[in-house]
Amino acid sequence: MIIRGHEVFSPILRVGELISAAVVVGILAGYEHLVHRGDGPQSGRIIYSLVIACITLLFSILLLTPFHCTFYFFALDFIFFVCWMVGFGLMANLTASDGCDSRWIWYNWGYYWGGYYDTTPLDEVSPVLVGTGYCPRWRANLAFAFIGGILWLLSAILGLYVVLEYPRGGGDGQGRTKRRLQKVTRFQRGREPVAQPETAQTNV
């Protein structure tokens, strides 16, 4: 049985996509649960990113097996890449260039993660009270959202390469490029002049 490089690399990418989606789902689902408990306002950006994370989590499991047919989903891989980049951009824009010092971190993210909704009304919260202690969780969410998107892009590129190089599965382990090189080599060898045997000269 011939094991090719893409059959090894593809599951690695899928596992990375699975882990990235699972981290984002865990963080955002936990946040949404706290927002629901605190009767807070829902963010369409967070909900969109959570939905994308859940969908890609499911598909990363379905496409985990390195069967040749899974490489034909390269278009879907690219769509998920675009969806992840949109989600990453929407979430990153919540804090913009202020990062952990942005109003959204202490007024929304940290407020619900810290459970301040049980003791302090939202209109009385302040950055001094909440602080930025939960910002690393937000950064991890953004980081894994970005990493997940890049992994889906790599899967799309790999799938397109495999479909073009091994259109019929490449059962003999050789792709189109290798077959063409072999044909060129055989053609060149066929054009090489055949060496004539030297005849011994006799002196009279």
Automatic annotation (TrEMBL):
Its membrane topology: Multi-pass membrane protein
What are its GO cellular component terms? membrane
Q: Where in the cell is it found?
A: Membrane
Asked if the Swiss-Prot or TrEMBL record annotates the protein with the keyword Membrane, the reply is yes
Q: Which domain of life is it from?
A: Eukaryota
The answer on whether this UniProt entry bears the keyword Membrane reads: yes
- Domain MARVEL stretches: 12-158
Where do transmembrane segments lie in this chain?
12-31, 46-64, 71-92, 142-164
- Give the matching InterPro entries: Marvel
Q: Which UniProt keywords apply?
A: Membrane, Transmembrane, Transmembrane helix
Q: Which Pfam families does the entry mention?
A: MARVEL
| Protein name according to UniProt | MARVEL domain-containing protein
* Organism encoding this protein: Aspergillus steynii IBT 23096
